[in-house]
Specification:
This protein is α+β, with helices and mostly antiparallel strands. It is built from 3 helices and 4 strands. Strands 2-3-1-4 form a 4-stranded antiparallel sheet.
Length: 109
C-alpha cells in the first residue's frame, strides 16, 4: 500500500474556501477508489499549511483513480472551484510506504 500526502499552502484569509474544497473531496475521493484518511485544515500554529491524505494499493491504482476523479462531476467542479477562488497557493504531493508495522494494540489509559 502507498499513502499520498498532499501538503497545501493556502491563503489564510480563504480558509473557509479550503474547508469547502476538503468536504467536496470527502465525497469524490472515496467514490473514485482511494481510501481517504482525511483533509486537515490549519487549527493551531501555522495558518497556511493544510494536508490531504489517502491510501491506494500501488501507483497503477493511483493512475486509475486519477482518471476516474477527472471524469467525476464533483471532482471536476472542485478542481474548477480551486482554480477560480485561488485559495491554494502551493501544492506538494508525496507517496510514502508505511515502515512501522506491525503496530501493537492501542492501550487506553
Amino acid at each position: 500500500m502507498i499513502t499520498c500526502f498532499i501538503r497545501y499552502e493556502i491563503d489564510p484569509y480563504k480558509k473557509d474556501a479550503f474547508m469547502e474544497y476538503a468536504r467536496n473531496w470527502g465525497q469524490a475521493i472515496p467514490r473514485c477508489g482511494a481510501d481517504l484518511v482525511g483533509y486537515f485544515a490549519p487549527h493551531e500554529g501555522s495558518v497556511s499549511t493544510a494536508y490531504g491524505i489517502y491510501h491506494l494499493p500501488d501507483l497503477a491504482s493511483y493512475e486509475a483513480y486519477r482518471a476516474r476523479l477527472k471524469d467525476d462531476p464533483l471532482g471536476r467542479e472542485n478542481y474548477e472551484f480551486s482554480q477560480r477562488e485561488k485559495f491554494i497557493l502551493r501544492e506538494e504531493r508525496q507517496f510514502l510506504k508505511i515502515a512501522s508495522t506491525p503496530h501493537t494494540e492501542l492501550i487506553k489509559p
